[in-house]
Write a structure and sequence with these properties.
Strand order of the largest sheet: 2-1-6-5-4-3
Radius of gyration: 45 Å
Distance between the termini: 131 Å
Length: about 575
């Protein structure tokens, strides 16, 4: 039997001597396992060991058999022998129960301690306990694996945090198209999560280098002088990290020695002054680089010597700098496009004429998204017969394509109105026909109006409004006494709708002295989810309260009603008639 301490591991022969087949299979399984197994009697003396136990402990089987298991093997972490009274293995037989431990130490033949996990169970024969079986394994390998797993987990958590930071930076920076604001937001995201202070230096022109943003941990005040124009890049070689990065080198890691090195030029001295004031034992300088150029440099620094940057941090900061550079480059390109578009807009929306005693005022607000220019337009000009013409229109869209279509229609309308002494309805009818062959615009709304002199039979101070509307919102007339109403006559189909039976017609309305006529586009009153009639009623009530305001102020106050946030362009054209006797 295994409990007798005899040798094990030989296969029985066919004569029937030795172990029975079932016993041989059981012993072979015990011998082949990588676990250590030993048996004791009720007194705790070892009666049998498997090869796994002798391999782990280093003792030969003969030395272990008959030995007191507690005295031979059991040890505290300091190597001392624990008291027998407190030994859990000793209690297995006394309490007739299985006991286990996730960590203990056994003595070995070499004098070292073997960390083990074990389980001990009583052995019964005919219902009576006769000994104990102890199974143990070396947990060093398990602890190493757990350590590696913990390291991998920590690394994964760090990578997740870095990815989260990069995602947050990308999201935040793309929410603004102002370069300075974008770099300021970058600093706030990096301090104190990644740095004790951060600085962003950028080229604002071919030669101008300026510090755009600073962020400092705690209550450290930011010196306004830090944002002054920086010295130019030196022509000769330099060991300055800032100079080298601005010239195209990859991100650089600075230790205490590099930070303490004396500057070798004005730009290096300006960079060094930040470390003199804010401190720094470790820093990274990374280029704000796009595929086209180097826009500037990002500097991050830590002041605690116990927490220096590593090469892994250099890769992270370099990724952050690339993300920031793309956002800054987009903002710069948008700024250039905005300047071009602003110039284009000024040329498209010409200055208002000075006409008799009539006052004219106009406003244009571009859509907050897109190219900041669109299909809304206004125009006012004097016709060859001396009558003042007013026009307003809206081509669908708020991008450069819509602006080009708007320019086509506006110019064609002005040319047709000046070339043909006809009523507004006939002029719009001509424009509708020309659009089919000379314009890319599919449809557009428009109002064309004439401010005609008083009729002999009417009040000499009352002028006449003659107008037609191609699917546009109705003009709003506000009298000097604060009475406001929409002029809803003269409506017909949109421009671009070509039907044989479409008839456009004019409408006439008196313009009392001191009254204000307002033409506008739908961006002023159309609000998603709000009934248009309610928005028009709100505009009418508000305009009535502005009847005696100066015309420029009248327009500003009307614009204050614009929905927020806006999704469309807004164009306004306002006419104020002179008071009686003028």
């Amino acid at each position: 039997m295994m409990a007798d301490g005899g040798d094990v591991g030989h296969r029985p022969n066919g004569s029937g001597s030795g172990a029975q087949p079932a016993e041989w299979l059981l012993r072979a399984a015990f011998d082949g396992t990588g676990m250590g197994i030993y048996l004791t009697d009720l007194a705790g003396r070892i009666t049998w060991v498997n090869p796994g136990a002798t391999a782990l402990l280093g003792f030969p089987a003969d030395e272990l058999r008959g030995a007191d298991a507690h005295q031979k093997l059991h040890r505290r972490l300091d190597g001392g022998l624990p008291p027998r009274s407190g030994c859990e293995l000793v209690t297995v037989c006394r309490q007739d129960r299985t006991v286990r431990s996730e960590f203990a130490t056994f003595a070995t033949a070499g004098g070292r301690l073997l960390p083990v996990a074990w389980v001990a169970s009583p052995i019964h024969h005919d219902g009576e306990p006769v000994g104990v079986v102890v199974v143990f394994i070396d947990v060093v390998e398990r602890l190493d694996a757990a350590g590696r797993q913990a390291e991998e987990l920590a690394r994964a958590q760090k990578l997740t945090e870095q990815f989260r930071l990069l995602t947050e930076i990308s999201t935040v920076l793309t929410q603004t198209l102002d370069v300075r604001e974008a770099m300021t937001r970058l600093g706030r995201l990096l301090v104190p999560r990644l740095a004790d202070w951060a600085a962003v230096d950028m080229f604002l022109g071919p030669r101008e280098l300026r510090r755009l943003a600073m962020a400092c941990a705690g209550a450290t005040p930011v010196d306004p002088s830090w944002f002054a124009e920086l010295p130019s890049l030196p022509k000769g070689p330099s060991r300055s990290a800032l100079v080298r990065v601005l010239r195209g080198e990859q991100a650089l890691l600075l230790g205490p020695e590099q930070i303490a090195a004396p500057p070798d030029g004005p730009l290096a001295a300006a960079h060094d002054s930040l470390f003199n004031v804010l401190g720094g034992s470790s820093a990274i300088v990374a280029p704000l680089r796009t595929p086209r150029r180097v826009l500037g440099a990002l500097t991050v620094a830590r002041t605690d010597p116990a927490r220096p940057y590593t090469e892994a941090d250099v890769e992270l900061v370099a990724d952050i700098a690339r993300t920031a550079a793309l956002a800054a480059d987009n903002a710069c390109l948008f700024g250039q496009q905005r300047d071009i578009v602003d110039t284009m807009q000024r040329h498209l929306l010409t200055a208002l004429p000075q006409v008799d005693h009539l006052q004219l005022a106009a406003r244009y607000l571009a859509a907050p998204a897109g190219s900041q220019v669109g299909g809304d337009w206004y125009d006012a000009f004097v016709l060859p017969d001396g009558v003042t013409a007013l026009a307003i229109g809206d081509v669908a869209g708020h991008d450069l394509e819509a602006a080009g279509q708007m320019a086509q229609l506006r110019n064609m309308l002005r040319a047709l109105a000046c070339d043909h002494k006809e009523s507004p309805s006939l002029i719009l009818d001509r424009l509708n026909k020309v659009m089919a062959v000379a314009s890319d615009a599919h449809t557009a709304s428009a109002i064309l109006a004439r401010i005609e002199p008083p009729r002999p039979e009417s009040d000499p101070d009352t002028r006449i409004l003659r107008w037609t509307s191609a699917g546009h919102l109705p003009p709003l007339l506000v009298t000097a006494h604060g009475q406001a109403r929409y002029l809803e006559e003269g409506q017909s189909l949109l421009l671009g709708v070509h039907l044989d039976d479409v008839t456009r017609h004019d409408a006439l309305a008196p313009l009392p002295p001191g009254s204000t006529l307002l033409l506008y586009t739908d961006g002023l009153v159309e609000v998603p989810g709000v009934n248009l009639d309610n928005s028009l009623a709100r505009l009418r009530r508000h305009a009535a309260t502005l009847a005696r305001r100066p015309l420029q102020d009248f327009c500003e106050q009307v614009l204050a009603l614009a929905p927020s946030p806006r999704t469309d362009d807004i164009a306004l054209l306002a006419l104020r008639l002179p008071p009686p006797g003028q």
